[in-house]
Automatic annotation (TrEMBL):
It comes from the Bacteria. Its EC number is 3.5.1.108. HAMAP family: LpxC. Belongs to the LpxC family. The keyword Metal-binding applies. Zn(2+) binds at residues 95, 254, 258. Catalyzes the hydrolysis of UDP-3-O-myristoyl-N-acetylglucosamine to form UDP-3-O-myristoylglucosamine and acetate, the committed step in lipid A biosynthesis. The gene is lpxC_1. This is UDP-3-O-acyl-N-acetylglucosamine deacetylase. It catalyses: a UDP-3-O-[(3R)-3-hydroxyacyl]-N-acetyl-alpha-D-glucosamine + H2O = a UDP-3-O-[(3R)-3-hydroxyacyl]-alpha-D-glucosamine + acetate. Keywords: Hydrolase, Lipid A biosynthesis, Lipid biosynthesis, Lipid metabolism, Metal-binding, Zinc. It comes from Methylobacterium gregans.
């Protein structure tokens, strides 16, 4: 695939106009949160209209393509996973998808040699650094967005998600954890805000649940949290985060980060105000599916 023009435009001009890809490729490597296996990842420019495509190299040397689209989403514990029509799985895509979406990268090829993307320190900072290093290149194709026309809502007990009309993607997130004060974060999803407020926030969990889940993984053979430790997640012990929070109200910010990544599976930028209370991956994907099913609730600008 030939590289696009290396012209890198200011990100403040990128919200509307033409599609964009990376101006160059970048690489990352590291273990996955659930499998614990090391993955080599190369994120490269892609042609206009290609979207985000995962290309996994299998053990037999064959390659399989998995589109980053909500129709290919498969429910897996504590992550966002995609499975192709041929049955090939790629998991824990949400942090990279969030970084690409926030930096307004519409088209990219993500090549990896394992089932799961690296988790790094549990945040999206490494992906953001790679994207900034590579640069953003506009392409000769219009950038279309899903514009919300009326409110759409999903609920599950105390968990709720609502999207309503707005001229940008804006998120208002709320989370209440036992023994912690209520946490809130509100802001637009643009490159600067994302890198400052959301990208540093890490995957988190209570340490008292980590050991049972690791035992479950060992007994059942299912990869769950095999790569989880205090270097890859923010561990909660009682009333505190071990080692402190990387940003204020880190858990709610990470839920917002995951939400940005899950919304990116729509396949187009979303223009809407999303209000989230205690949300997680399952509810995020339920909102995407409901919004896409209600054709009168949105249009393509």
């Amino acid at each position: 695939m030939s590289a696009p023009s290396p012209t890198v435009l200011p990100e403040t001009c990128a919200r509307h106009g033409r599609q964009a890809t990376l101006a160059a490729a970048f690489e990352r490597a590291g273990p996955g949160l659930h499998t614990g296996r090391c993955a080599q990842v190369r994120v490269s420019p892609a042609a206009a209209g290609a979207g985000i495509l995962f290309r996994r190299t299998l053990k037999n040397g064959c390659r399989a393509d998995v589109p980053a689209h909500w129709r290919y989403r498969e429910s897996q514990p504590l992550c966002t996973a995609l499975r192709s029509a041929d049955g090939v799985l790629v998991r824990t895509v949400e942090h990279l998808m969030a970084a690409l979406s926030a930096h307004r990268i519409d088209n990219a090829l993500v090549e990896l040699d394992a089932e799961e993307l690296p988790i790094f320190d549990g945040s999206a900072l490494s992906w953001c650094a790679g994207i900034r290093q590579a640069g953003r290149a506009e392409q000769d194709a219009p950038r279309r967005a899903v514009r919300v026309l009326r409110p759409v809502e999903v609920r599950s007990g105390e968990r709720s998600l609502r999207v309503e009309p707005c001229d940008v993607l804006r998120i208002s997130a709320h989370l209440a954890l036992a023994r912690f004060p209520a946490m809130d974060w509100t802001g637009p999803v643009d490159p600067e805000t994302f890198d400052r407020d959301l990208a540093p926030s890490r995957s988190f969990g209570r340490l008292k649940w980590a050991v049972p889940l690791k035992l479950y993984s060992f007994v059942t053979g299912k990869p769950v949290l095999r790569g989880a430790n205090l270097r890859t997640t923010a561990g909660i012990l009682g009333r505190r985060v071990v080692g402190g929070m990387s940003v204020p109200d880190e858990p709610v910010r990470h839920r917002a980060l995951d939400l940005v990544g899950d919304l990116a599976l729509i396949g187009h930028p979303l223009l809407g105000h999303v209000t989230a209370a205690h949300t997680g991956h399952e509810l995020n994907h339920a909102l995407v599916a409901k919004l896409m099913a209600e054709a009168d609730a949105w249009d393509l600008t």
